[in-house]
C-alpha cells in the first residue's frame, strides 16, 4: 500500500516535468506558468529548426500560441498548429 502511494506521488510529480513541445495541448499550455510556456515553445522551435531559438523568436511564438489557443484553437489543439516564426 505504501509503495503504491509513493509510486503515485512520484509519477504525479513527474508529469509536470515532461516537456511535450509542439505536442502540448492548448488546455495544458494556457494553465502553465511563464517558465513552462517558455520551455514548451523553445522545445517546439528547436524540434522544427534543429537550432537554438532566439529570445525574440520565443517571445513572438509564445504570443502567437496564446492568441491561437484563445481564439481559433480549442483545448485539444496542439500548440504547433499556431502560426509562428
Describe it.
This protein is mostly helical and 85 residues long. It has one domain (20-81). It is 61% helix and 0% strand. It has four helices and no strands. It has helices at 2-15, 26-31, 34-49, 55-70. Helix 3 packs across helix 4 (55-70). The protein is globular, with a radius of gyration of 15 Å. It starts with a helix and ends in a 15-residue tail after the last helix. 20% of the residues are buried. Mean pLDDT is 85; it is low at 1-15.
Largest sheet: none
Low-confidence stretches: 1-15
What is the 3D shape? Answer: globular
Helix content: 55-70%
Number of domains: 1
Q: What value does the average pLDDT take? A: 85
**Structural class computed from helices and strand pairing:** mainly alpha
Oligomer: single chain
For the CA atoms, what is the radius of gyration?
15 Å
Separation, N- and C-terminal Cα atoms: 49 Å
Number of strands: 0
Report the order of strands and helices.
Answer: HHHH
User: Which percent band covers the strand fraction?
Assistant: under 5%
DSSP helix count?
Answer: 4
